[in-house]
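To whoever is covering the structure queue this week,

Two jobs came back overnight. Logging them here so there's a record in the thread.

Job A:
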Amino acid sequence: MKRFIESYTGKEFDLIVIGGGITGATVAYEAASRGLSVALIEKSDFGSATSAATSKMIHGGLRYLSTFQFSLVRESLRERRVLTNIAPNFVHPVPFLFSNYKSDKVSTLKMKIAMLLYELFSFDKNWMKDKSKKMPRFKIISTEKIKELVPNANKKELVGAQLYYDCASHSPERLTLAFIKSAINYGASVANYTQMEGFIMEESVKFNTIKGIKVIDTIKNKKINVYGKLVINCAGPWADLVLDKAKSMPTHPTGNNILRRSEGIHIITNKLVNDYIFSGFTPTDKHFFLVPYRNHTLIGTTDKEFIGNPDEYKVTRKAIEELLEEVNKSFGDGNKIKYEDIVYTYGGLRPLVEEQTEDVYNSSRKYEITGEKKNGIEGLITVEGGKFTTSRRLAEKAVDKALKILKLPKKKSISENTYLKGSEIDNFQDFVLEKQKQYAEFLPERIEYLAKSYGTEIDKLFEIILENPAYKEALNTDGENLAQVVFAIRNEMAKTLPDIMLRRTGLAQLGHPSKETLTKVAKLAAKELNWDDEKMKEEIYKLEKILEIPS
């Protein structure tokens, strides 16, 4: 992977994609795989904002049944199956226990009906290439069985649970990167740390036509014009701010386009649950979940409207305390989760397109794809809303619209049935067993973890591991190592310490990895990226600020 912006000479692309989160990544891949010339620019790092702030699930959205969003649930469940097929190392079935209490506003009967509907909408859930990922049918679990499976569950008023299967995402950050790599594989040009500053406009009486975008390569500190026939705005929570840069002529003002934003935070603690994702309703009729995650527990999530500049967003102590208060009312059986139990916290902003609901929790996760001709602008499409699970389908529709605007022949999408780059695996269990035998000197569970992260690229990683005896040392219990740092820089466009430790690897996703580990990684990164001591210290400081739990 190379940043195209460093050697760009003025080529006109068919399509320019603004935003390197999951939406921009899937759009770039979808367009490139259908033969369009594509450029994608991202102002920070790929998947570093909303796409990295997920609950690490690929799911249908059981709760959307209560608001009768049946088409969204069906689309999500279909796309869950598609992602399991095309990214088998990243997406895996996991068991959920949805608890039922006497005080819940949703009765046990209604939950059973909801589960029956969920089963109906996921009728094709086992139409998968990889037969090792079969998902059992839901069943009702007794109170006694829940006490056995989840000893920390509140016992008071507990009347049972629904056991069903959805899917987890091993690494949303690396799954986003897999779409980026797949786009590059089909010829797309991509660049991170490339800030969009404005549009290149051709003015006329009737319409302003966009001919490209003005950007700043923030690594080289260089201003560049990138030319394209059509621009797709995939900036997520920043989509309205990007659109606002496309001011039309006074006779066709765009006005201020305001997108609704919802904050979602998560916290990670030491292990509280075992093999099951434990979920249920809070006293305020919202849902919570505790996810087994790398021998820790991931707890989420909030859904609260955020007002302000998305660039200034950060997780606050108040938001964490509100989440803890809700979860502690519904889990712990008297043993409350304390603030000091938190080892890491992260959050992000979800872009929403629905304005009718007062509470963003009840807002739809639908998406919209709009052309801007109504605002006196030609050559621009804006994509808003959506969720991680449905991003591929959203991209399919966006590219259909792009082909129509560009007056190009409609070409059938291949993304539904084509493995992502690095995910060309027919049976994941067999693949893991093969790699465990091939690299028998390493612990089997660590090979499985690396197989999930790298898929068929694991052999390239091991070529680096075998370069230097120091690279074999495990830096955490998952077996992550220094070779991954080299791999991230040489092959995956990692430019900063947070890129390496939060998105290319999970070395800092469970909180501060220790001064020793951080120093080892930083020194190797400095060598590969030619940092001086001052730059290395700056990168360490930057990462440690991110890892701070709000005081």
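Job B:
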Amino acid sequence: MKKIIIQLLPYIKKYKKHVFLNVIFNLLYALFSALAFISLIPMLNVLFGQTEDVTEAPVWKGISGIKTYGEQLLNYKVSSYLDNGNAQMALVIVIGLVITTFLLKNLFGYFSMQHMMYLKNGILNNLRKEMYDKIINLPIGFYAKRRKGDVMARILGDINEMQNSFFIALELIVREPATIIFSLIFMFTFSWKLTLFVLFFIPVAGILISRLGKSLKSNSLKAQQESGKLISIVEESLSGLKIVKSYTAEKIFKNNFTNSADRILKLSNKIGLKNNLAGPVSEVLGITTIAVLLWYGGQLVLVEKIIKGTDFLAFMGLAYAILTPAKAISKASYKVKNGMAAADRVFEILHEEDTMPDVQNAKSLETFNNEIAINNITFKYNNDPVLKNFSIKVPKGKTVALVGQSGSGKSTIANLLTRFYDVNEGSIEIDNNNIKDITKKSLRDLMGLVTQDSILFNDTIKNNLLIGKENATEEEIIEALKIANAWEFVKDLSKGIETNIGDAGNNFSGGQKQRLSIARAVLKNPPIMVLDEATSALDTESERIVQVALENMMKNRTSIVIAHRLSTIQNADKIIVMHKGEIAEQGKHNELIAMNGIYKKLVDMQSFE
């Protein structure tokens, strides 16, 4: 718990005003909780005719004698009414005292909860925002080894679990201990013997409850990890629904989901069984304490006569005021175990280091003037070599195409150029600047990326394109759509560029989605274009239309084209033929055909497709 509190401190400091006011109001709440039971004594004295007869107004003797002065003043007022036969007025005064005390107690309780609400909601909101910033900023490689569902479970489920459990404990951290302390102080003024009786049972309850909760955190952690798997199964099922249905694999996915759900059920039941024990155990211990207290206190009242009956009733109220927060703390201790497991998972992501940060004093590259140089680079995925001593130069305004069989390392070049990954050896330079010495933002601002998968978001066509240029005018958007050959179908839509494209753009065909992706890159208007198999997923007719759009886009731009279909790159200034991470051949289309090598074989194979 201490470790989690330390990690939360930077977030708590932002709301220190609410922390301070919450503590003040909780202390006042605790004080008046104890006073509320003491305020019953004058009323009980009036009802049972045990009010001390005070005939002279008391004299103020300083703050040290405030308790005696308050009792004497109240007794003086009440006894004066009783002596004059006005018992009703005496009763009104003592009842008014009870109502005022309980009113102040609840008013301060309300104020404390308000400030805790601002504190809790503010911290959780900041945690959510910081966690989203972190998952957006972490490099692509981080997600290669993780389930997306697990990350989603952390930002959604685990933060909610912190709200429902860990922060409940924060609400009790001042109020309940302070209530116990104030109650004990007043109880000692009545009878130290009775108070020690109560104190004997509270640690016993604490020891029993802590033993029950020992394994709760580990079970909670397992349940949260399993929740991440469950979300992953749902996410993957929906993303690949066509494959699931076409292969009639519903049974496999249902079994995976059922097994995961059953594991969560088993863990949840284990956690619930122990959670449910907290209440009954503390209740039984509490009533046992009260029973013993009634027996022993009854002796002090009836036999030894060292405490008044009315005082004993108030003492019982104070004892109850101790047991109630003690039970709340014991129940909260269970919830804290759940919250700590969730908090650990949240902070694990927040503390994850960016393995590809901008170097100190990284320069911002605003323009591209000369060439891109890839110098003897070597790259490995999980120690498996993908590129070996690979070198090419791409002069400004030229188009270089990368071709080769699957697994030859073509798409890896795009990932390294955009710094989704870093090279293991060698360097990539833009205008003699190593891209590791350039800010990632300025590097990516120079580039437009169009991938094989048309990645579009569930929003309007306009907002999808504005990702490329946030402040673009409607005229610029339409011009980009025209260059991408997309305006011909967008203009016929009932809402035009305000049309929602649906989840992952499913309201449109593959060719239409790809043209919208190209329009987004055109609107960005970068000097360097990276096209990663931008037409490989399209049918022949769509490919022709998209190819025209790509040619429009590449005019006067430096382009690196990763191609599967060789018909799309015959006019490239240079074609690099890759084989097992190395350059096998390079040259223009006609030169490579004349070599009668790998490129010629690839062209011949595709001509029969």
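Note for Job B: The CA atoms of residues 241 and 315 lie 67 Å apart.

Please reply-all if you pick these up so we don't duplicate work.
Q.
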